[in-house]
Amino acid sequence: MTVVKWNPFGKSAIPTLFDKLTDDFFNLDNFFDTRMPALMAKTGSVNVAETENAYEIEVAVPGTEKSDFKVSVEGNQLSISAEKKTESETKDAEKKYLRREFGYTSFRRTFTLPENVEANAIAAAHNNGVLTITLPKIKVETTENNAKTIEIS
Predict the structure, then answer these.
(1) Cβ proximity of 84 and 43 under 8 Å
(2) Which of 9, 24, 44, 121 is the most buried (most CB within 10 A)?
C-alpha cells in the first residue's frame, strides 16, 4: 500500500470546471499556442529532408515574395531571414475618415551546416510562398580504421 499526501489546494486527478477555467485563463503557453495562430505562422515553418546527394530545407511563409527573403552563409552557419512590410489605407470622403495601417513582419532562422555540404554550391528557389534551399553534399574522405597490432618489446 502506498501512502499519498493529500493537498486540498492541489490539482486533483479529475479536473473540475474551476480547474479548466483557471487553466485556460492563466496558462500563457496555451494562450499563445491556440489564440494567436497568426503570430506563430509568421516565424516560418521549416521542413528538412535528406536525399542521397543533398539536403533540402523548405521554409513556408505564406504571403511572401522572393524579394522578401535573404539567405546567407557565414562559416558553417546558414541564415534565412525574411522581412515583409505592408501598408493599407482607407479613405471615405462622405464619412470624413481616414484609416491607415502599417504591418511589419520579420523572422530569422539559423542552421549549422554539416561538414559534408558544399557551401559554394547552395541554391535557393521560391515558389508560392515556399522557399526551397538545396545544400549539395560532397564526399568526405574518411580515414580507414586499419587495425594494427603493435609488439611490445
Answers:
(1) no
(2) 44
- Report, as an integer, the average pLDDT of 105-130: 89
Tell me the sheet residues that pair with 57: 48, 133
Look up the pTM and report it.
0.58
* CA 136 – CA 80 distance, rounded (Å): 17
CA distances (Å), origin 94, targets 91, 98, 122: 9, 11, 55
Percentage of residues in the chain with pLDDT exceeding 90?
A: 24
Within its chain, how far is the Cα of 147 from the centroid? 44
Residue keyed to cell 493537498:
7
Q: Report d(CA 51, CA 45) in Å as an integer.
A: 20
Pairing between β-strand 130-136 and β-strand 69-74 as defined by DSSP bridges: unpaired
